[in-house]
Specification:
- The protein has ten helices and seven strands.
- The chain is an alpha+beta fold.
- It has two domains: 154 residues, no CATH class; 185 residues, Histidine kinase-like ATPase, C-terminal domain (Heat Shock Protein 90, 2-Layer Sandwich), CATH 3.30.565.10.
- It has a five-stranded mixed sheet with strand order 2-4-5-7-6.
- Helix 6 packs antiparallel against helix 7 and helix 7 packs parallel to helix 8.
């Protein structure tokens, strides 16, 4: 917590008042030890003027100003040290003059007055006053450098945060043209085979683009909204593949309000269909699951194909735009606090499992009827729409 200017100076004045009180107590005990007792009040009058008023009220603000005006930095440091030596030499003269109006109040029984008293203050305190100037100057410089260091840390943290957000935005924006290009390519193929299916796909694509524009500035959205977008995308793919593609959702109602990265599941589903189901002649299925375990939201997307197709040359998955982008986004957002695993149980199936911290969104959790509708209704039913030729 950063203190404002008034609070800082109040604390400085209180510190000097405490030092004056401590010095008065020490002087009182020393005189008592050597058999020359004096009242604590007499000692306090001395330290109140010499410590609190002279240094706390008068000289500390002056030295702080000189510290800001003539900082001891690499540039012109010899000249600035000379300036501070001059002021340090003047400080004993200033303090001696400052104490003169309080002389009769501090020492009511003193026989020294005028010039004699002034010389007494000057000769007895010159070294201490000269040294105190440099002590305060060093403290002021230390505080200045500390504040600069903290400001640099805050600036660096802010820049790193802005850079991370920019990188996330770039990664997310890479998905939009990739998704749009592939969908338009599918539409162009359908235009030569089924104009009705192509027309429906264009309408579905318009809905998806509307949802994308609504969430374009958001890095995280609720799982419910993410599933809505995924369902719209899979409807487009089902229009394309017809009965060859079956989709199943197994969604835990308690996960619907969890925050997930925007466009997290669509690239994974697209990867499953493009590199899994579409290269096989038989039917295929996509399963989407969500559940909670130990404060983690776990998501599973698995595709499985029937029949023969393009043989799998490399049993390890290829990290293209979809998988690679998702892996980098999760690493950027969650660091080591996430899991991203890919598995290929056999040549015709592939699955991706993700675990991220479970953080509920700002909106209220869905009620029972809404949860049942989302899990046992549209999302739970296999999506098997057909388009008449």
């Amino acid at each position: 917590m950063r203190l404002n200017r008034s609070t800082r100076w109040l604390l400085i004045f209180l510190l000097w008042a405490g030092i004056a009180a401590i010095q008065a107590t020490v002087s009182f005990n020393v005189r008592l030890f050597y058999g020359r007792p004096a009242s604590w009040t007499d000692m306090a009058r001395v330290t109140f003027v010499a410590v609190f008023l002279a240094w706390g009220i008068l000289l500390t603000p002056l030295v702080a100003y000189l510290c800001r005006k003539f900082p001891l930095e690499t540039q012109n440091w010899t000249r600035r040290i000379g300036v501070h030596l001059l002021f340090a030499a003047l400080v004993p003269l200033i303090i001696a003059a400052f104490r003169m109006p309080f002389h009769t109040w501090v020492y009511p029984n003193s026989e020294d007055y005028g010039l004699m008293a002034y010389k007494g203050y000057l000769y007895s305190n010159a070294f201490d006053d000269f040294t105190m100037y440099w002590v305060i100057l060093v403290v002021c410089h230390a505080w200045t450098y500390y504040r600069r260091y903290r400001d640099r840390e805050l600036t660096t943290a802010l820049l790193e945060s802005q850079l991370a957000r920019a990188e996330l935005q770039v990664l997310k924006m890479q998905l939009h043209p990739h998704f749009l290009f592939n969908t338009l390519h599918s539409i162009s193929e359908m235009m030569h085979q089924d104009v009705g299916a192509a027309d429906k796909t264009i309408a579905l694509l318009a809905d998806l683009l509307r949802m994308t524009l609504q969430n374009t500035r958001l890095h995280e959205i609720s799982l419910k909204d993410e599933l809505e977008f995924l369902r719209g995308y899979l409807e487009i793919e089902q229009t394309r593949f017809r009965d060859r593609l079956q989709v199943n959702f197994e969604i835990d109602p308690s996960t619907l309000d969890a925050l997930v990265p925007n466009m997290l599941l669509q690239p994974l589903a697209e990867n499953s269909i493009r590199h899994g189901i579409s290269v096989h002649a038989g039917r295929g299925s996509v399963l989407v699951r969500s559940w909670l375990v130990d404060g983690k939201l776990r998501l599973l997307l698995r595709n499985e194909s029937e029949g023969v197709g393009t043989p799998v040359v490399n049993p390890r998955p290829s990290f293209g735009v979809g998988l690679g982008n998702t892996r980098m986004r999760l690493q950027q957002m969650y660091g080591v606090n996430h899991v991203f695993e890919t598995r290929r149980p056999n040549d015709v199936s592939f699955e991706v499992e993700i675990a991220i911290p479970h953080v509920a969104g700002n909106e209220a959790s869905p009620d029972v009827s809404e949860s049942e509708k989302l899990t046992s209704g549209a999302l739970a039913r296999p999506m098997r729409e057909q388009v008449s030729p």
